[in-house]
Design goal:
The complex is a heterotrimer of chains A (about 550), B (about 210) and C (about 300). Chain B is mostly helical and about 210 residues long. Chain B is about 80% helix and about 0% strand. Mean pLDDT of chain B is about 90; it is low at about 1-5. Chain C is about 35% helix and about 20% strand. Chain C has helices at about 10-45, 60-90, 195-205, 215-225, 225-230, 260-270, 290-305; strands at about 100-105, 110, 120, 120-125, 130-135, 140-145, 150-155, 160-165, 170-175, 190-195, 250, 255-260. The chains are: A mainly alpha (about 550), B mainly alpha (about 210), C alpha+beta (about 300). Chains A and C meet through helix 3, helix 5, helix 8, helix 10 and helix 11 of A and helix 1, helix 2, strand 7 and strand 9 of C.
């Protein structure tokens, strides 16, 4: 009988005939010039980890500064540079690439039964572009940083800021192209390389999520690229674009920026939804409730997400009638998200639920994402947004979605597929401890910020009136817990690489093609090309339900 | 047989599927490009909506003949690259090579003409800096658009020329074969660059003269 | 100002708080429902528990999915309708609103009262009557935010934005710049002092004697040479300015434009933008010649011009 919670170690796994992708070449060049999607995923994972901790360090300094109202730990200039750094790095160098380029890159071809992505060289080029953008950003940092906020609002960024706006904008511009190429690649892969029998409605929800994300990446990112190009042109060459003195319109920048940056929220959260769907189905040992509704929900989020950007501009001076339309569409886009939460919850119903670490992260996601989503509704309401716009209420809201949601899901996925990626099992109890620490630390850090925001504390304030102190102290204290919880996985996952038990091909008894091949997979992913004959998430006979705990899936999804 | 197996890249089961995949990916990339230029067009539209008279007046200072000649050059180059694509498909590699060389020549001629036009614009003080020739509010953003849009377009032309040079090299090495993805993909891209120019031509050279 | 309580000092604040509370209760209920279900299912259906598994009951799948989709949709539509109609009621300022001008710059708020009194980082206003702030910025984008009123409005360079409020109780309330505006953004704070109308009148009277805003504008009108064309008996054929404010001006290109503050401002700085029908576009631009501080009284003066009966 299997242990109810710990994934199974299987020493009797037969050695595959071919070496695993990790053993297939040991030189540096075999890594940095690889076209193997799995190795590129590892390259991305290493790069975004570096940036996650750079962004995290900035956040730490910010929280130290805000511990007391008139703190002089940082000067105003330093503080402004730090929150900008935190935003730029976390959004473009961590959150946007996080799940798609690591888990997405690794799993997309495996899940659809392909040997690689459609354009392996372009995939490598994406990583090099990411690296190029990263270098520009680091240079910017070394040259003194940038102080515009991650939003680069004009005319401050083009005419008034005395910081390295050009380098930062160029870095984001370049990393934008990395994101576009990744999107093109994933769309082409999903369309062209599905294994025989892998019809659209047999795709795992994670693939659907990555597909929907890629569409957003391809259609939204170029608008960001152009708006940054316009900022650079105005700043460097003095070409008047947004300058009101010559008839330019500074609000135009905000429209263009949010036309990207609102969909970018969905670039961050859709992949998270995909991960959570996989983990909850596997841990509840049940078919995902309402699979088709989940697919339609993700696709409609991706589409409607393009039409709500104006809700970032209710107080900007845009037409009040535009605000009416954008408020309406923002309510509409919340419907599919709500459906997804209900469906995940319903998937638990009559399951055989296990509580391994990925499941704890997933349940944490469910709670945090629900809070983030509900407070999003508050912000879709014009009178409330007028009151709390640009306050900590907004900060708390989007951290609940982007950190509570996406980062929790990223950790859920990282743990869930860790045995597949590395062939090792991580220490379960440490992982559970970190998951719970992250959930508590997160709420501890960000819930007080809702109250701060409601009381009116503006965002991006270096020093603040004394009445806000108690909530800031709570938030900063919570951040200590959160930081510790984020450092833990770094330690025990590293440890597992060397000392973790070896994993078998399918330690979770999960469905999905990625679990039918060796852990870690061989260079070509599958010994023989797979063929798919059943629906996804075939954990049990739909007429009977999962009667036994840890019941293995009915039949392998792939018949080789 | 062995050669075509060599040309087959990793994830693809067969050649036609591979070509189909590359062409599909190029269409997706062109969708990106449409949005990229779309944002620029939004800038143009907003400025023209805010300052209709000033934009018309400012547009009258663009050089109609340079613009028209360049439109003709670029349209012709689209014809030659389409010829190359078709020639290759029908097994006429020599004709394809000639057509590619012609496309390259037209592309370079376009850039050269653009360079002369830039020089004339600068002499006419049409760079919206301190010595800008026009006073009306809204004229500066228009000329800002002119320089940004034509420069971004010129970068696209240059990238297209790079792709064409690559095809020419492949052709001289006799590695260009019918229904090859790189030929179709380059053709698509070049046509797109051409279409963008036609729109820019209308926005920059025809508006002030209607 | 304390850490747990935010005064509710305007009619807008009352309306907003009502909506906020309703939403808080509703979303609290939804959150509790989701959490109760997740926790409940997690306990009842933990691996190996005795609970019945079996297939989903027949009624569950489709009907439930459609049911909660439609329920969510209708709830959201209702919320949208309710909140947006409240907003549209609130944002239309009454025609007779008391006007105060605000000019923002890095990193201060400059206030010009209709009486001509100038203030920095403090804005005095009467309670109980509608007040309209007409705001612009000299440099970057700022945002005029008064949490006690639950109101804020971005302040943009090159145009006027407006914010209307009706304060309900006298008191001193915090004013913040909510849009990041550079180095000392966090110091761009101030206060809004609400006085009863009688106290407000006393406060105005107690200020050092000075010209009203419109009178200051008249001086700028004269010194800038506006009267050379727009004045009585001028040789140039220029549009008369009397009764201009609030009228619909016919344009040379066809159509009409409502002559509000923004129109008057544009007509001074960008005279070519909207040329009135029947006039030659001969007026020079005053861009750069007049500062935002001078434009405010000048516009106020032009607004005050009435045709002689």
């Amino acid at each position: 009988m299997r242990d109810t919670e710990t994934p199974q170690a299987a020493p009797e796994t037969p050695k595959p005939a071919k070496p695993s992708y990790l053993a297939d070449g040991h030189t540096v060049a075999s890594w940095i010039f690889t076209t193997d999607h799995k190795r590129i995923a590892i390259l991305y994972a290493l790069s975004i980890t570096v940036f996650f901790f750079i962004g995290g360090a900035a956040a730490t300094l910010i929280r130290i500064q805000l511990f007391t109202p008139h703190n002089t730990f940082l000067t105003a200039g330093q503080y402004n540079r730090l929150f900008t750094l935190h935003g730029v790095v976390m959004v473009w160098f961590f959150l946007v690439p996080s799940i798609p380029t690591t888990l997405g890159n690794f799993l997309l071809p495996l899940m659809i039964g392909a040997k690689d992505v459609a354009l392996p060289k372009i995939n490598l080029l994406s990583w090099w572009l990411y690296l190029g953008g990263a270098v520009l950003t680091i240079v910017c940092l070394v040259c003194g940083g940038v102080d515009t906020g991650w939003t680069f609002y004009t005319p401050y960024s083009t005419l008034y800021s005395n910081s390295c706006v050009l380098l930062a904008a160029a870095g984001v511009f370049v990393v934008g192209f990395s994101s576009i190429l990744t999107g093109v690649n994933f769309i082409a892969t999903t369309h062209m390389l599905r294994a025989p029998g892998m019809t659209w409605f047999r795709l795992p929800l994670f693939v659907w999520a990555i597909y929907a994300t890629s569409i957003v990446m391809v259609l939204a990112t170029p608008v960001l690229a152009m708006s940054l190009l316009l900022v650079m042109a105005e700043r460097v060459f003095g070409l008047p674009v947004f300058d009101p003195r010559f008839g330019g319109d500074p609000l135009l920048f905000q429209h263009l920026f949010w036309f990207y940056s609102h969909p970018a929220v969905y670039i961050m959260v859709l992949p998270a939804m995909g991960v959570i769907s996989e983990v909850i189905a596997s841990e509840a040992r049940r078919r995902v409730f309402g699979y088709q509704a989940m697919v339609y929900a993700m696709v409609s989020i991706a589409i409607i997400g393009f039409m709500v950007w104006g809700h970032h501009m209710f107080v900007s001076g845009q037409s009040p009638y535009a605000s009416v339309v954008f408020s309406f569409l923002s309510f509409i886009v919340a419907v599919p998200s709500a459906i997804k939460v209900f469906n995940w919850t319903a998937t638990l119903y009559r399951g055989q639920i296990r509580f391994a670490a990925p499941m704890l992260y997933a349940l944490g996601f469910l709670g945090l994402f629900t809070v983030g989503g509900l407070t999003g509704l508050f912000l879709a309401v014009v009178p409330i947004d007028v009151a709390v716009h640009d306050t900590y209420f907004v900060i708390a809201h989007f951290h609940y979605i982007m950190v509570g949601g996406t980062v929790s899901a990223f950790f859920a996925g990282l743990h869930y597929w860790w045995p597949k990626i590395t062939g090792r099992l991580y220490p379960e109890w440490w992982a559970k401890f970190a998951a719970i620490g992250m959930f508590l630390g997160f709420n501890f850090t960000f819930f007080p910020q809702f109250i701060l925001g409601y009381l009116g504390m503006p965002r991006r304030y270096h020093q603040y009136p004394a009445q806000f102190q108690i909530w800031n102290v709570l938030s900063s204290s919570g951040a200590v817990v959160l930081a510790a919880a984020y450092l833990l996985p770094l330690v025990y996952l590293m440890w597992s690489l060397f000392a973790g038990r070896r994993a078998n091909a399918n330690p979770w008894d999960a469905t999905g093609l990625e679990w039918t091949t060796a852990s870690p997979p061989i260079r070509d992913n599958f010994e023989t090309p797979p063929r798919v004959e059943t629906a996804p998430y075939d954990y049990h006979d739909p007429d009977i339900g999962p009667t036994q705990p840890n019941q293995p899936p009915r039949q392998p999804q792939a018949a080789e | 047989m062995s050669q075509s197996a060599q040309l087959l890249h990793e994830p693809w089961p067969d050649r036609p599927r591979e070509t189909e995949g590359y062409v599909f990916a190029m269409w997706i990339f062109l969708a990106t490009e449409v949005l990229f230029f779309g944002a620029l067009m939004a800038f143009y539209a907003v400025n023209r909506w805010a300052h209709p008279a000033a934009v018309k007046q400012a547009a009258a200072h663009s050089d109609f003949w340079f613009g028209t000649i360049n439109t003709a050059i670029l349209l012709t180059s689209s014809l030659t690259i389409a010829t190359a694509d078709r020639a290759l498909e029908h097994g006429l590699p020599r004709l394809a090579r000639v057509a590619l060389w012609l496309t390259l020549a037209f592309g370079l001629a376009f850039l050269l003409t653009k360079g002369f036009e830039y020089r004339k614009d600068l002499e006419d003080h049409l760079w919206p800096g301190p010595n800008f020739a026009l006073v009306a509010i809204g004229a500066r953003p228009f000329w800002g658009f002119y320089w940004i849009a034509t420069a971004v377009h010129a970068v696209h032309v240059t990238i297209g020329l790079g792709l064409i040079v690559r095809l020419i090299i492949l052709s001289h090495r006799r590695m260009l074969r019918p229904r090859q993805a790189s030929m179709t993909v380059t053709t698509l891209y070049w046509h797109f660059v051409d279409v963008v120019w036609v729109v820019l031509y209308a926005l920059l050279y025809l508006v002030g003269r209607a | 100002m304390n850490a747990f309580y935010l005064p509710q000092a305007s009619t807008q604040a009352q309306a907003e708080d009502r909506i906020f509370l309703t939403l808080l209760v509703l979303s609290g209920a939804v959150l509790l429902l989701v959490l109760a279900l997740v926790v409940g299912f997690s306990i009842r259906y933990r691996a190996g528990s005795k609970a019945r598994r079996g297939p989903l009951p027949a009624w569950v799948s489709h009907e439930v999915e459609i049911g909660w989709t439609v329920a969510t949709l209708f709830l959201f539509l209702f919320l949208f309708w309710w909140t947006i109609s409240a907003q549209l009621r609130l944002q239309i300022p009454p025609a007779n609103a008391f006007e105060i001008h605000v000019v923002a710059k890095q990193w201060m708020w400059k206030v010009q009262q209709p009486s001509g009194v100038r203030e920095i980082d403090t804005l005095h206003a009467p309670a109980g009557i509608p007040v309209k702030l007409v705001m612009t910025s000299q440099d970057v984008i700022h945002s005029f935010a008064v949490p006690a009123f639950r109101l804020k409005q971005d302040v943009l360079p090159g145009r006027y934005t407006e914010m209307s409020f009706q304060a309900t109780q006298p008191g001193t309330y915090q004013l913040f710049c909510d849009q990041y505006c550079g180095l000392d953004h966090s110091r761009m704070t101030g206060q809004v002092v609400i006085l009863s109308p009688a106290d407000y009148a006393r406060w105005v009277a107690a200020q050092p004697e000075g010209d009203s805003l419109a009178a200051q504008g008249e001086a700028i009108f004269a010194s800038s040479g506006c009267g050379g064309c727009h004045g009585q008996g001028a040789a140039v054929h220029a549009p008369p300015l009397e009764d201009l404010y609030g009228s619909d001006v016919p344009l040379a290109g066809g159509g009409f434009v409502r002559a509000d503050e923004g129109y008057i401002r544009d007509a001074i700085l960008q005279p070519r933008k909207n040329i009135p029908a029947g006039y030659e576009p001969v007026m020079p631009s005053f861009q750069g010649a007049l500062s935002e501080d001078q434009l405010v009284p000048l516009v106020a003066y032009i607004k005050s011009l009435k045709a002689k009966p």
